[in-house]
Amino acid sequence: MFTHHQKILVVDSEMPSGGSQNRRVVSFVGGIDLCDGRYDTPFHSLFRTLDTAHHNDFHQPNYTGASIAKGGPREPWHDIHCQLEGPVAWDVLFNFEQRWKKQGGKDILVNFRELDDIMIPPSPVMFPDDPETWNAQVFRSIDGGAAFGFPDTPEEAAKSGLVSGKDNIMDRSIQDAYIHAIRRAKNFIYIENQYFLGSSYAWDFDDVKGEDVGALHLIPKELSLKIVSKIEAGDPESASIQAILDWQRRTMEMMYKDIVQALKAQGCVEDPRDYLTFFCLGNREVMKSGEYEPSETPEPDSDYMKDQEARRFMIYVHAKMMIVDDEYIIVGYANINQRSMDGARDSEIAMGAYQPYHLSTCEPARGQVHGFRTALWYEHLGMLDDTFQRPESTECVKKVNQIADRYWDLYASENLEQDLPGHLLRYPIRVASEGNVTELPGTEFFPDTKARVSWCQISLFSSNAYNLRGSCLVSKLLLLTWVKLGARRAFWALKGIIRLQALVRGHLVRRQVVATLRCMHAIVKFQEIVRGRNVRLSGNGSVLQENTAGRKKDKKSADLLGTSLRVWKLSTNVFTTKMPCFVSRGPRYYSILSYLAYN
């Protein structure tokens, strides 16, 4: 398990009808972190709330030294959360119980059976024949190393719908839920997610296998195949961010190529964006009288100053939500990436729900899922339109694309005459006739930054050391991290991680002999690779020496990224896997929304 990524809140609450001393369980799941900088409104103001709602909650991690004293723009935040009542709320409570018993022991937690005289047992909140009733289910990404009570054998795991890995049992029900909902979709799928990358086995590579990237989950490929099946039926600047953007581009490109191929097979000459479209969110505000006046100014010619003068900033899309046919919704904390969908990496939790009396069987669904989706679109587009009632129609898709294109032009323009009418912006890419994805003409960088839209796409898997050192992707990220973190500090960091893990599990392991030896062995490799020397205790020492230092006699260039990938696979060094987490965050321009429709 990489990170405990679940965000849950479970509380006792009064009975809905009142007049009873008994309490019930209410749970909350979704994307909202319980920390500063998360409160926002549908207006996502950049400057106008700095002397009111956000004066003591100013959050802007994208600039060094940003503060309320220097003024906006603040980082606007878009997120989705949900409240659960009834038996499904107890499922979230049981998830907490499993995690507690695994990490803290069985004897410390209060026995819920002792609360029978206070808490009502799991029971429905609404009558089954109520037209507004819901069916809801909890999904997770978690393994037996993080939750108590998992089966011990693959056979028992299979009976419980779990997945067996190498010496591990995993609950991968979030990925399963996404795939099931995608396959059931009839008309359209609307997704809001912080990340969108995966199905790397289907990406285009020259010299690296998609399996080596490790982003193998199925969701993007399932989406593109769903669109294809309908067609055939006739119907920023930091290295880590740029790496994510590149992988998102490859994911988009894989999907668009599937769509283009299917259109050509049917003899259709249509824009693939009529079937699959990606958006981002942003805001721009004119200055009004009475606004908060900062006492200081940002550094001249900094991104901070540029954004302040241009009065614009991207809205951080932190939501993790999917709506299918206006009848089914998934809300949680799981990103569409390998870490969230794997089951053995980040622990995640989500819920899927629908209203049985509001399904799109004979006519379009018009329940609360539909109402929520139209409310989101009103927030993003700043307008209502009758075509939005049929999001699967070509007319609706084209209209939304036209609006988003216009809003992007207004956002990126040098001139500012009025507030941005809405927040939905075209993601600045162009889809070529063969499905290749490039940046929009004249849009080399995101506005006011040096973050490339083109993602330095060739350098990621380049074997040329000079291209590698000059790139702004994962390879450079690892090189810079290696240079900044010496072996001694790396060793103590690893030792601290081991002890922290031991403490969380309820006991302090004083002498981690085996783990320490492994860490020391990995650090020896680590240090020697950076210095370009032969790695001792390794059968590939001479090969690694050539790949990292190059061969002088024939002027062979070093293959640092290829070497790092191979060493990572051989050593499974926790620290090298975790290193990108220690690099300071840059501009967050990787948040996207996607909207799919098919006739």
Polypeptide structure, described:
This protein has helices at residues 87-104, 154-159, 173-184, 210-213, 219-232, 239-265, 303-310, 338-341, 368-381, 394-412, 465-470, 474-484, 487-504, 513-531, 541-549, 560-571, 574-578, and strands at 3-4, 8-14, 23-30, 77-78, 81-85, 135-143, 163-165, 168-172, 188-193, 276-284, 312-314, 316-317, 320-324, 328-332, 346-354, 424-426, 429-431, 437-439, 592-597. It is of the alpha+beta class and 599 residues long. The protein folds into two domains: 3-456, no CATH class; 484-582, no CATH class. The strands form four sheets. Strands 1, 6, 7, 8, 9, 10, 11, 13, 14, 15, 16 and 19 form a twelve-stranded mixed β-sheet that branches. The longest helix is centred in the middle third of the chain and has 27 residues, at 239-265.
In whole angstroms, how far apart are the ends? 41 Å
Strand content: 15-25%
Shape: globular
| Overall radius of gyration | 26 Å
Mean pLDDT: 74
Runs in which pLDDT lies below 50 for 5 or more consecutive residues are 208-214, 224-235, 456-495, 504-513, 533-592
- The total strand number stands at 19
Work out the helicity level.
25-40%
Structural class: alpha+beta
| Tally of separate helices | 17
Main sheet summary: 12 strands, mixed
Number of domains: 2
